[in-house]
């Protein structure tokens, strides 16, 4: 069945059966729409939306108003704006509170000369305000229905020539130049998108992004905080991160299951001079059990086995080729959620000692390398410290000590 909006008030419903046509214009009459059913003998039910109210129109012209069920499938999964259905599975939660949109624009600090990147613009509620504040907007949208809605909404307006819409996956497409990013993003791409933005060149001024609240709190967490984790360390290595405001779930259509937060991300200039694969390798290991001592973590057989293998491989390469460890400057590796060198459990409370994972002092095989690793920790006085309490400078210092001893993490 096809729904065609003839004007802003008239809805025509065409059935695959040519003998049936329903037409309803609420500005002309208040009576129920009539139906011509021809030889159709079975009861035919049609559902349409008018000002967010649901009606059931039956053959013969009978009409019955339906109240959306709060707990039922229809009430929870069908959400519309301008005739477009939103899909929660795709992270489509559209901002509907104009005061919140204004607040985000204000806190973003947009200049009239800024080129603005928006990711997941949806139906354009935030886009409209961005066009009013900046020079131009580049909007990246995956859903072709939303792309058509954006083009329709701004066609023929003074903003149309300042809006560029890119249809595609933001994680796969090349991003153009922009000064500032302002976005309400699908939450399932939060981590890879954050590090893709931080790896973008030339460096942008700042990004003001809506995240799931727990993810946002991990971004801004400091050493000693409960949510302080590998994500916190890696993000704050590359940027200054600050929490702007908390956003309740009822500010969206459809409402998500969790609250959200708006976060400001300002890339550090210049970017830190560090091998990002080396850095991430160290941080991954340290946060396997963030509340255990660093010494206990580096005594585990798995950790020692990985490090010794890297050590021997690099020793062989340096002997044969005379080359050191290649520096990796692509920060997007920090957002990789794929293969891990170690299984992680950042919420571990530290009570499990994992005795079976530690290498016994009496083992001859690998004991020399174990002493080499522990010697590095003792040199920097890190053996009794915990990852949950270490700051950026501590991890940087520890990495340099390991590298000076010829121990690498990639």
Description:
The protein starts with a strand and ends in a 6-residue tail after the last helix. The protein has helices spanning 73-77, 98-108, 125-133, 144-154, 190-198, 213-220, 230-238, 276-286, 294-297, 301-321, 367-379, 392-404; strands at residues 2-5, 11-14, 21-24, 45-50, 53-58, 63-66, 80-81, 84-85, 94-95, 115-119, 136-141, 163-167, 180-184, 206-212, 239-247, 252-253, 260-267. The strands form five sheets. The protein has a seven-stranded mixed sheet. The protein has a three-stranded antiparallel sheet with strand order 1-2-3, with no helix packed on it. The protein has a three-stranded antiparallel sheet with strand order 4-5-6, with no helix packed on it. The relative contact order is 0.08. It folds into three domains: 2-67, no CATH class; 90-267, 3-Layer(aba) Sandwich (Rossmann fold), CATH 3.40.50; 276-404, Orthogonal Bundle (Helicase, Ruva Protein, domain 3), CATH 1.10.8. By secondary structure, it is an alpha/beta fold. Residues 1-59, 68-78, 337-346 and 349-357 have low confidence and may be disordered. It contains twelve helices and 17 strands. The longest helix is centred in the C-terminal third of the chain and has 21 residues, at 301-321.
């Amino acid at each position: 069945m096809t729904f065609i909006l003839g004007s802003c008030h008239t809805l025509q419903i065409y059935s695959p059966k040519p003998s049936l046509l329903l037409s309803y214009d609420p500005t002309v009459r208040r009576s129920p729409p009539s139906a011509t059913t021809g030889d159709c003998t079975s009861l035919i039910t049609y559902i349409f939306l008018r000002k967010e109210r649901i009606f059931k129109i039956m053959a013969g012209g009978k009409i019955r108003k339906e109240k959306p069920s709060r707990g039922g499938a229809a009430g929870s999964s069908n959400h519309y704006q301008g005739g477009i259905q939103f899909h929660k599975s795709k992270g489509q939660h559209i901002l509907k509170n104009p005061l919140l949109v204004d607040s985000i624009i204000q806190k973003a600090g947009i200049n009239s000369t800024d080129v603005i990147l928006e990711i997941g613009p949806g139906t354009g509620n935030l886009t409209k305000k961005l066009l009013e504040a900046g020079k131009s907007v580049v909007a990246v949208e995956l859903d072709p229905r939303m792309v058509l809605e954006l083009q329709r909404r701004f066609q023929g307006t003074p903003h149309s020539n300042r809006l560029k819409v890119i249809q595609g996956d933001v994680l796969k497409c090349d991003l153009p130049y922009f000064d500032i990013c302002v976005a309400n993003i699908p939450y399932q791409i939060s981590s890879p998108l954050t590090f893709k933005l931080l790896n973008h060149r030339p460096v942008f001024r700042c990004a003001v992004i809506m995240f799931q609240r727990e993810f946002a709190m991990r971004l801004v967490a400091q050493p000693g905080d409960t949510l302080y984790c590998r994500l916190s360390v890696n993000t704050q290595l590359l940027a200054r991160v600050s929490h702007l405001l908390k956003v309740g779930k009822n500010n969206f259509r459809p409402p998500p299951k969790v609250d959200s937060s708006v976060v400001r991300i300002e890339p550090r200039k210049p970017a830190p001079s560090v091998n990002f694969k080396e850095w991430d390798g160290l941080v991954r290991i340290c946060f396997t059990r963030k509340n255990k001592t660093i010494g206990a973590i580096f005594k585990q057989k798995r950790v020692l086995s990985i490090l010794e293998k890297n050590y021997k491989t690099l020793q062989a390469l340096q002997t044969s080729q005379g080359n050191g460890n290649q520096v990796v400057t692509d920060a997007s590796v920090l957002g990789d959620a794929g293969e891990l060198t170690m299984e992680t459990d950042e919420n571990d409370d530290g009570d499990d000692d994992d005795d079976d994972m530690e290498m016994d002092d009496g083992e001859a095989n690998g004991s020399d390398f174990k002493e080499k690793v522990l010697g590095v920790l003792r040199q920097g006085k890190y053996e009794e410290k915990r990852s949950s309490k270490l700051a950026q400078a501590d991890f940087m210092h520890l990495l340099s000590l390991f590298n000076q001893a010829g121990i690498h993490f990639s």
